[in-house]
Amino acid sequence: MGDGEVCDSVTDTAKAIARMEIRGAAAIAEATATALREQATASDAGDAAALRSDLRAAARRLHATRPTAVSLPNTLRYVLNRMNGDDVEAVRDSVVTAVEEFCDRLDHAQSDLGTVGANRLTTGDTVMAHCHSTDVLACLETALDQGKELSAIVKETRPRKQGHLSARRLDELDVPVTFVVDSAAYSYLNEVDHVFVGADTITADGTVVNKIGTAGLAASARNRNVNFVVAAQTLKFDPETLSGGRVDIEHRAPSEVLSDEQRLGFDTIEIANPTFDRTPARHVDAVVTERGQFPPESIVTLMRELYGPETGRPWEE
Ligand code: RUB
User: Rounded to two decimals, what is the model's pTM?
Assistant: First the structure.
């Protein structure tokens, strides 16, 4: 190493993120930060410039895994912008310290956000959940810890069925869960007090990019006058959208939709598998963050305050 080569744990983490063994924006952020720390400690770079080059190479490898989850580049920005020092030890120490700080903030952010989200909930409420978001679960867990009784309707969330993870977690917490296929959501909305979803990315105009199916659910919730809440740490804000950047929507393999066996006889039919969609701000009642609750249209102000000076791509330098 020392010549832009990445260590095994960076490669392993990148593969695990790409295969969705590590998934969800917060988990991706933590794994990314930890992999950068591994790179800093494993590198045998001979001088500070070589170590910086190894770290940027590691960051590029990680960045290439999932294009839509902005927590990943925001993590890279946080750590690489704090990388400093004139010798190898100093650069290494600065990265290790930045990663510790980052992981600490991540832990606090989720529990602070949970408290804000729990304030929206009262005993007897039924919440509909889509996909698996640890930020959403933090809101529900905090409300339960406060003694509020909740029930949940959980959507399966095709094609990867991450709704199973949410349903199992809520069942462990003794929340009565009704598990439904995605197409049943509209029929169940009249039994629901709030829809809670997470986010992978929130743009400067308050658009919420989250697991495919979120936008349709938000439109249905608006149609039925059901509160639609997005639980998302400010780490999900995309600072590149402050200057016109667009969020690319990841497309994954057709085999996630139909297995090779199911595909027999379908081979001339194109299968599309977009992973995320865009929910417009007008369908979102509130964005719950660790810094409080915001109408989506006001996110731009907070985004500028938090990320104004950090919109670059330090892994490309
Ligand atoms: C997961 C997903 C989650 C967000 C938020 O998508 O869309 O709602 O990532 O998760 P995938 P969290 O399964 O493709 O990663 O609140 O845990 O950060």
Answer: 0.91
